[in-house]
Design brief:
CATH architecture of the largest domain: Sandwich
Strand content: 15-25%
CATH superfamily of the largest domain: Cupredoxins -  blue copper proteins
Radius of gyration: 28 Å
Structural class: alpha+beta
Distance between the termini: 51 Å
Strand order of the largest sheet: 3-2-1-5-8
Oligomer: single chain
CATH class of the largest domain: Mainly Beta
Helix content: 25-40%
Order of helices and strands: HHEEEEEEEEEEHHEEHH
CATH topology of the largest domain: Immunoglobulin-like
Bound molecules: dinuclear copper ion
Length: 317
């Protein structure tokens, strides 16, 4: 089936094993609501006009009850609510029981990006979850700071991600393609930019990706690698590279200058300042900015830190 034909006016084309069931329930509730809205409102309008008060006509006695009508308006709505209940319960169970052979991924959310750790494969990635088609994937999720919510509309799954607690969800992609990942819980200034993607690939592509993921990218120069990491490690969410102001200082022209810090101190923006600000951003807060940057200690490899420092240095003009 052409995936585009499974898109609804509210959601993108289906991409997981539960999408079809979720859409069936939604469409049932939605269409039933429209149909009954039209029936109730049109009958009400008709009665208001037809039986309006007119000169010379006596007011009729209101009937106290009508057994047939009462049975009818009890039985029909009962059936109507039982249909989505049973359909929904079946899908709810399916969405909450993770198949045994699922691929295990630990998801960490923080302001304002996602980290994916493939627990068995020993690979990690930022803002991009790569999965093989036709294999269930279990996500065990927790947050480093506030509540975020893992939402992939194409898969019809959404699950809150909390600090100090694990939440679990799973999905199985049914076709190859890219699916948008949103944070669906307001989590601060960068919430609307906390966007990632899920890339569903063939089993072979997945194996290749896992293989490549564990190796540091040796082929690139440090500046080239830094430019890649700028996007891949989500620096782009807050730091511009064209001097435009944002949540955080722009990288452009940031190296080698005098920097005002919160608390009235100053510092020179040299390599060590940049390194420290990447690993422990709370050590020195730039004047006029909120202390919202996540610490990258343990997330970046040494060569990646070098690459980012060199990249920032390269953005002088
Ligand atoms: Cu994270 Cu909104």
């Amino acid at each position: 089936m052409n995936p585009d034909s499974t898109a609804t006016i509210f959601l993108p084309p289906q991409g997981s094993t539960v999408s079809g069931q979720v859409d069936t329930i939604f469409n049932f509730v939605f269409i039933a609501s429209i149909v009954f809205f039209l029936i109730v409102v049109s009958v009400a309008v008709f009665f208001v006009i037809r039986y309006r008060k007119r000169a010379g006509m006596a007011v009729a006695e209101a009937p106290s009850h009508n057994l047939k009508l009462e049975i009818l308006w009890t039985v029909i709505p009962t059936i109507l609510v039982f249909i989505p209940f049973f359909l929904g319960f079946r899908t709810f169970i399916k969405m909450h029981i993770v198949p045994k052979d699922a691929l295990q991924v630990k998801v960490t959310s923080q302001k304002w990006f996602w980290t994916f750790d493939y627990t068995v494969e020993g690979v990690n990635s930022l803002n991009e979850l790569v999965v093989p088609v036709g294999k269930p994937v279990q996500l065990t999720m927790s947050s480093k700071d506030v509540i975020h919510s893992f939402y992939v509309p194409g898969f019809r799954i959404k699950m809150d991600v909390l600090p100090n607690r694990y939440t679990v969800t799973w999905f199985e992609a049914t076709r190859r393609g890219e699916f948008e990942l949103f944070c669906a819980e307001y989590c601060g200034t960068g919430h609307s930019e906390m966007i990632g993607k899920v890339r569903a690939v063939s089993e072979r592509e997945f194996k290749d990706w896992i293989g490549a993921g564990s190796a540091v990218e040796e082929g690139l120069s440090l500046v080239e690698l830094g430019a890649k990491l700028y996007t891949a490690k989500a620096c782009i969410t807050c730091h511009s590279i064209d001097g435009a102001p944002g949540i955080a200082p722009s990288f452009k022209g940031r190296f080698g200058i005098q920097i005002q810090l919160e608390g009235g101190k100053q510092t020179i923006s040299d390599e060590n300042y940049l390194r420290e600000s990447i690993l422990k951003p709370m050590a020195k807060i730039a004047y006029g900015f909120q202390p919202v940057m996540p610490a990258y200690q343990g997330i970046l490899k040494d060569r990646e830190i070098d690459a980012l420092v060199e990249y920032i240095k390269s953005l002088q003009k």
